[in-house]
Amino acid sequence: MKKTVIALGAILVSSFVLSACNTVQGAGKDIERGGEKVQDAAVKTKEKM
């Protein structure tokens, strides 16, 4: 269940971030930042368990 919530959140964040991009380079940076946020959330969730 938690994995599903994290995955859904990542998809929503990615969609929002990608809609704000104007260039391919900007898209790459935005995707990287989104991935970092997902990793941070995963680490925090793992620490709570």
**Terminus-to-terminus distance:** 14 Å
Instruction: Describe the sheet with the most strands.
Output: none
* Class inferred from helices and paired strands: mainly alpha
Backbone CA Rg: 12 Å
- Percent of residues in β-strands: under 5%
N to C succession of SSEs: HH
Low-confidence stretches: none
Total helical segments: 2
Count of all domains: 1
Mean pLDDT: 82
Structural shape = elongated
The helical percent reads over 70%
Count of extended strands = 0
List the helices and strands and how they pair.
Elements: H1 2-19, H2 24-48
Helix pairs in contact: 1-2
Précis, in short:
By secondary structure, the chain is mainly α. It is built from two helices and no strands. The model has no long low-confidence stretch (mean pLDDT 82).
Keywords summarizing the entry:
49 residues; mainly alpha; elongated; membrane; palmitate; cell membrane; Entericidin
Care to describe what's here?
There is one protein chain. The protein has 49 residues and is mainly alpha-helical. It has one domain. It is built from 2 helices and no strands. The chain has helices at residues 2-19, 24-48. It is elongated and about 40 Å long. Residues 1-19 form the signal peptide. This is Small secreted protein. One of its GO terms (cellular component) is membrane.
